[in-house]
Structures are given as structure tokens and as C-alpha cells.
Amino acid sequence: MSAWWVLPVAYGVDRLLGDPRRLPHPVVGMGKAISRIEAAIRRLVPPHRFKLAGVVLPLLVAGGAFALSLGLIRLLAQISPWLAAAAEVWLIWTTIAAKGLKDAGMEVFRHLKNQDLPAARRSLSMIVGRDTAHLDTPNVVRGAVETIAENIVDGVISPLFYALLGGAPLAMAYRAINTLDSMVGYKNEKYIDLGWASARLDDVANYVPARLTGLLLIAAAKCTSGLSAKGALHSMKRDARAHPSPNSGFPESAVAGALGIQLGGENVYHGVSSFRAYMGERTRELEPADIPTTAALLIWVSNAAVLIGTLFLLLWFLIGVL
Predict the structure, then answer these.
(1) Most buried of the four, 50, 74, 250, 301, by CB within 10 Å?
(2) Residue 15: pLDDT over 80
């Protein structure tokens, strides 16, 4: 990290402006690179070698993202340290999605508040993979709450964590891993061999941030009136590992316990029903107000993570000066 203030500035820009849609976006470049490399592998590598190629794929993409980011920053540093710092701010900004995640959830909430269930279903369909056309209000709320809770990790805490450890290059490498998982990390016939390493690497990359997120959510519940830190802790300890993802269960179970609701249950994907383990206890029905409450937890946890990270970087800077 070139300067201790880069991380909070990058986060502040995201909170103010959200996703930089009108600027060149590295994640778009990653997606195009992944598609081209996948096409080349399928053209040049025999199918019985796909499992080995699956190891090479994340090395090329994540390694390339790290090397290109580092090269850009070092090149700009030769011109001006301020240009290098600005590049780091921009790159880290593109890895964070706090505002976008909150806004997406709140869009669903606004439609429900206006009693426009079809519009709420359409908005939810933009941020979840499940079928939404026939969901009732509680299940629309569940989908929004689960999505916000789950994506606190890979949308905010993980990129902040890796930016703290290794600046923009490591944050970009993380985002490349996460993008790979979203594109090829499926357990279907097409990707079971080619995508296995990308999926495993994403699990490893999110392992520590997911558990830190759970702890931060417990702290957030403790500091928020009407929420239960004890419930968040109990639910996380009991339910987190029952989730099909080794990481997503920690934020989802903590949110469920904090709010006193039950997440998980039946979802439908492309017409096929799938059961996801329950998180939390059903003390009441889900209601639209649970969405802004979860969004508030997202922002509390994000702010706390940035504050802790900034204090750590500032302390490191002061030790270096002294």
C-alpha cells in the first residue's frame, strides 16, 4: 500500500459513487480474459486434461491481474507517487461493492413498500440466481436478505482484507479469483473439471474474511437497538457449517440470529427445486423492513472494517516513520 489513506479513500469513493460504470472497469476485462482463455483451453486441450487446465486457469487470471496492477502502479510511481496512489484508489474502488449491494437490496424494499410485488420480484431476479417469478413477499424478503448477507464477504470484506494485506494488486487478484468462481466454478458437467480449482481457490480466499465478517456482525448487533448479538453468535455457531458454502453460512447465520428470523429453505433454480439448510430460528415471519435492517448491518460492518484497517495501516506507517 503506497499510503495509509488509500484504503479509506477508495472505500469512501465507493460509498459516494458506487460502481464506476462510466469508467474502464477491470472486472469487465477479467471477464473477457476468462472467456477467451476458457475458449482457448477447450480448443487446444483434450477433455481428459481439463482438470489440470483448471489449475492453470486461476494462475493465469489471478496472477495476471496481480502482475498488471503492480506493473501499472510501479510505472506511474516513476512519474509521480500521487499518480500511483490515485491508481491504487481507482483499482481498490472497483473491487468494492458496498453501495451497489445496499442499493440493490433497497430497490427491492422500495417496491415491496409500494406493494408492487411483481416489480420487487424483477429487482430481486437481478441479484439472485433463483427463480423469482412466483415468490411471495416473505420469500422475496428472504432472497434479498440472504443476498445482502452473503455478499458482505466477497463484495466488501474480502477485497478490503486483501487490499490491507497487499494493496491494489492483491485486491485485484482476489477479485479475479471471485470472478472466476462466478463464471466457471460450477459443479455441472461443463465445469466440473475446468472450474474445480477456481471454486476451491475462492473458498480458500474467503475463509478468513467470512469468519471476520461473522464476528463483525455480532458486534454490529450488539451496537444496534432491537438486534440480538447473543442470537447472532448462537446461530453462527450452530448453523454456519450446515450451509452448502464453507463461507456463506457465517454472515447468513449471523444476520438471521441477529434479526430473529430464519433464512434458508426451498429455492427453485431453472425450474428445479433445491433445499438449503436453515439458518437461525423462525421466531416471526420475514417482513420488508428486514431488508433495510440488513443493509444497515452491511454498512456498519463495512465502516468498522475500514476503520480497523485504516488504524492498522496508520500505526504501521507511524512505526516506519519512528
Answers:
(1) 250
(2) yes
